[in-house]
Amino acid sequence: MSGRSVDTIGVVLFERFELLDVFGPVEILGHLKNALRIVMVGPAAGLVASAQGQAVVAESGRDDCPPLDGLLVPGGIGTRTEVDDASLLAWLRERAKAASLVMSVCTGAALLARAGVLDGRRATSNKRAFDWVVEQGPAVEWVRRARWVHDGHFWTSSGISAGIDMTLALVAERFGRDFAEQVSRRLEYTWHRDAADDPFV
Q: Would you name the residues annotated as active-site residues?
């Protein structure tokens, strides 16, 4: 997300992903339609069921996914099984290596941690599942008291709604705080601007 050219962000879908983990950030990134293209990527093209039961259409599968400049990895109860999916983890390693931006929401950080891409970096995750997530990446510097954490081109957030705050902070950094404030007002959303202010820790 350079703010100068159209980048492609791949949203990683898997069975029983959390809806708001995806559509909170996507709602915000959608205000950057002149700078971003968002692609839903599933195990294969077609419907992927969320944790809430509603299915979302993946435009491409992992095998036929276009080149990606960025990744958004949601959490959800499905991460409990997906951390053992070797093909997904290998795909995340490959794509994260080539990406200039990698984001996770909630327990999506567990997938990145198991893939090894967060080793040596600071990161956070959902506080109700925090201990389990930490087990997935012992070489990660986990930050418990954080609404979100930014380390290099990696952005990780706490649980579910925290992904909205993280994405607004990302937009503020890349496209200016005034623009991020405009987006939050359009959403009629009270933006939690302090990354260290985590009321759920």
A: 106
